[in-house]
């Protein structure tokens, strides 16, 4: 059994109900509906227009008609209120803002083996646009609903995003390599031999790294405050993974195993990791909840939760755009000298580790 330290702190509490999603039409101008998207195996859903935090384990859409945001969410989806280092915002695409596509959410399930039937949600542009594929994993003892905001934002930029409900992600049955295997199997079931980018929060970041190393169709992986296992599965695997393995990290603490994900990524030949100063572990999932905040809240930040959330989703979307070949300009968010890297670094909200 493999266990990460986060949920040794009250694992049962961390599996509690999550807060309402801040991903909604009022917040980010992305139209979300529950109509079944063509080209996937998802079940039919209703015609509501905003995402909800319901788990992907049932076969109904994760949408309802609410447009209110919850104060516990680490972000909202408006790019208009970001505090700027000056007036010289780069003229290239601002991936912090919602993209131009309306989004449809559908659900499905896939039998992995006798121990796991993997439920999942698909976030996709309503008009059938497909700019690339993303497999997005939640953290240890969390649920797919905790990354629904990130998924909706990515889909608003034209990407088809699958959020699996990982089968082996609790204190008593944690098996991150097995989760990674299931993610690869699910990607093949949904997209066949098409290319895929893996993204994950916390231990989901570890599974994303392992999946990228195992999937011949992988383009790379990005970890959101990724955490390696106690048995260093990621560290042992990373050195043999030549794909881009990038990461955003918060401040070191118990909930992110004292930034052991940095060591994991640094073992890879093609890695890049940046810090979001003052960010805590919960800032890298969206929506989060009060329980995560109670267990993992940092000591404070010069930046608001909104600013941190906008940065995380902008950097993540830029990585996906870059790796899929949809927009080579996504590199400018991550590499020294790039316009967006320089802009955010001058403000201090991203830093070298």
Whole-angstrom Rg: 18 Å
* CATH architecture field: 3-Layer(aba) Sandwich
Largest sheet: 10 strands, mixed
Taken in chain order, the helices and strands follow as HHEEEEEEHEHEHEHEHEHHHE
Note the overall shape: globular
What's the arrangement of strands in the largest beta sheet?
A: 1-4-5-7-6-8-9-10-11-12
Named CATH topology: Rossmann fold
Structural class: alpha/beta
For the residues shown, what is the average pLDDT? 82
Number of helices: 10
- How far is it from the N-terminal to the C-terminal residue, by CA? 31 Å
- Helix percentage: 25-40%
CATH class: Alpha Beta
Sheet-strand content, in percent, reads: 15-25%
- CATH homolog superfamily: Alpha/Beta hydrolase fold, catalytic domain
When the domains are counted, the total is: 1
Using DSSP, what is the number of strands?
A: 12
Please explain how this structure is put together.
The chain is an alpha/beta fold and 353 residues long. It has one domain: Alpha/Beta hydrolase fold, catalytic domain (Rossmann fold, 3-Layer(aba) Sandwich), CATH 3.40.50. Helices cover 27% and strands 18% of the residues. The chain contains 10 helices and 12 strands. Strands 1-4-5-7-6-8-9-10-11-12 form a 10-stranded mixed beta sheet, with helices on both faces. Strands 2-3 form a two-stranded antiparallel sheet. Helix 5 links the parallel strand 8 and strand 9. Helix 4 crosses helix 5. The relative contact order is 0.16.
